[in-house]
Design brief:
Blueprint lengths: L2 H10 L4 E3 L2 E3 L6 E5 L6 E6 L3 H20 L2 H17 L1 H12 L3 H21 L6 E4 L5 E9 L3 E4 L7 H13 L3 E4 L6 H13 L6 E3 L5 H9 L6 E5 L2 H13 L3 E5 L4 E5 L5 H13 L9 E7 H16 L19 H16 L3 E4 L14 E4 L16 E7 L2 H9 L3 E2 L1 E5 L3 H10 L4 E4 L14 E2 L2 E2 L12 E9 L2
Parallel strand pairs: 7-8, 7-10, 8-9, 10-11, 12-13, 12-18, 13-16, 15-16, 18-19
Antiparallel strand pairs: 1-2, 3-4, 5-6, 6-22, 11-21, 14-15, 17-20
Helix pairs in contact: 2-8, 3-5, 3-6, 3-7, 4-5, 4-7, 5-6, 10-11
This protein binds nicotinamide-adenine-dinucleotide (NAD).
The site of nicotinamide-adenine-dinucleotide has 28 residues, from α8 and α9.
Amino acid sequence: MTAAAERVLLDSVPTGLYIAGEWTGSSSGATLEVTDPSTGEALARIADATPDDARRALDAAVDAQEAWAATAPRVRGEILRKAFELVRERAEDFALLMTLEMGKPLAEARGEVAYGNEFLRWFSEEAVRITGRYGTNPEGTGRMVVSQRPVGPSYLITPWNFPLAMATRKIAPALAAGCTVVVKPAALTPLTTLLLASVLEEAGVPAGVVNVITTSRSGAVSEPIISDPRLRKLSFTGSTEVGRALIKQAADGVLRVSMELGGNAPFLVFEDADLDKAVEGALMAKFRNIGQACTAANRFIVHASVADEFARRVTERVTAMRVGRGTEDGVTIGPLIDDRAVATSLALVDDAVAKGATLATGGKALEGAGSFVEPTVLTGVQPGSEILTTEIFGPVLAIATFETEEEAIALANATEYGLVSYAFTQDLARGHRLIDRLDTGMMGLNAGVVSNAAAPFGGVKQSGIGREGGLEGIHEYLSTKYTLIPAD
Ligand code: NAD
């Protein structure tokens, strides 16, 4: 990839706010800089919205709501389908843009384009499958009609780690359901959402149905939207800490919320596991997105009888991983999102080592430009180490051991999070017991990646509320209405 090609792509990305079908600057004239985490260099300057801009964006969504809800589901579906085709045509642009602003290796960015785009296709199909019920009441005195209506104008807040997929996973079901939206991407990686907005416009999304605001002051700019009684829904993906604060804010307006929050996924390897598959699964579950995924395996809980062999095999593979800018051939580990993320990961490693873990490989930041951390393996992680209770969000694979199935399940569930769990075993009966007993919204049984647009994605406990994708995803944007029609 040449620097000139990168420049051409960057110059094609809109830099304004997208409100009521128009690209505009911030009302204050302020801009914010987007940088490449692999070099620290500026990529673009984009509009930095004010609270007034946020109000304007909500005004536009409110104005467009009635007509969009009245638009035939087939028409809504076909616009989403057209958007799917356009993203597929521009797949390379989206992939490169994500690599530039977020840092993930290009091959992974291509994977995210395919995954993220599936939400546009899936919900283009779901738009026409919104159904209800009709029946006689138990007394026989009337008919009961149950129908689904769009919940109304929705505010969608997305994180930086999956810039395309987190946007499409919210925008597509909202539009399919007949809701208009204001989208606020993370300030660290807003360019992908801006490019997506231009594609949605080209696909025929009417003015005001999708509005995008970018800002360096998320709290101050979100407040007027969340406190506005015309808003009907808040959907957030991000950290549990911010999610908790937003739930409190949403309580004032008794706003419907969907929360996709943090994780602390256990990855269990039993003594009867196929170790080859467990190692492959572990590398996917840990190092995809440079460890910066809510679904990233955080704690490897391995039976003591296979722990040394498992550690030896993963260490061999991890040592061979190539670290570098995501655009370079063969790179599988890009930079972390910023230097703060580097410090957090390394502090967790240091704490684990101080408490008795052994550093099998890695454990340092790379010298020079960019926020790089060596891919790291820790073995013999001891109870009480912070790495077992904190979301790592970096390329650090931490191994602890267990002796019995009971102990493994107790360790896996000993967290306030409950997003996803992974378990490797060839014992079918044990697999069924684990499905019943692991307290997570999702599970990979002999699988290191579970995400699929056709599956309900979401967590239990403090990992969130609601589901995105699958048959469930559209219901986050629908409300149920019951009507009684007396028989006479
Ligand atoms: P974050 O919570 O810092 O930010 C998420 C988004 O919220 C960003 O757009 C940010 O600008 C915005 N935000 C921050 N403070 C806000 C406020 N006071 N009011 C309104 N908006 C505010 O999270 P992050 O660092 O961007 O993302 C990483 C986190 O996201 C991790 O915890 C990860 O597990 C989680 N995540 C969860 C899922 C999931 O589906 N469960 C998916 C991806 C990421």
